[in-house]
Design a protein that fits this description.
There is one protein chain. The protein is mostly helical and 87 residues long. It has a single domain, classed as ACP-like (Non-ribosomal Peptide Synthetase Peptidyl Carrier Protein, Chain A), CATH 1.10.1200.10. The chain is globular, with a radius of gyration of 12 Å. 20% of the residues are buried. The mean pLDDT is 93.
Length: 87
């Protein structure tokens, strides 16, 4: 998958799972996910399960931090890097 593919899949999942109605309209790839409360520790765990099961990318513990989960763009970039290094 490309970074754009990851971005699209993540935006769809985060919007459907963690936001309601009008909140979805303001979600884009640069929306700060932790700062705005979209992601918390439990939701990061749910997101990691989606990433592993649906996107088929295993995120190492060393990559799970606030910096890598700041926004959808950053998560997609990290997934591209992790998937590329696993190939």
């Amino acid at each position: 998958m490309t970074e754009d593919d990851y971005t699209s899949a993540l935006l769809k999942f985060v919007g459907e799972e963690f936001q309601r109605g009008e909140e979805r309209a303001v979600l884009d790839e640069g929306t700060p996910l932790i700062e705005t409360g979209v992601l918390d520790s439990l939701r990061i765990a749910v997101l990691l399960t989606f990433i592993r099961d649906e996107l088929r990318v295993y995120v190492p513990l060393t990559r799970i931090d606030a910096e890598n989960f700041a926004d959808v763009r950053t998560i997609a970039r990290m997934l591209t890097e992790v998937a590329g290094s696993a190939a």
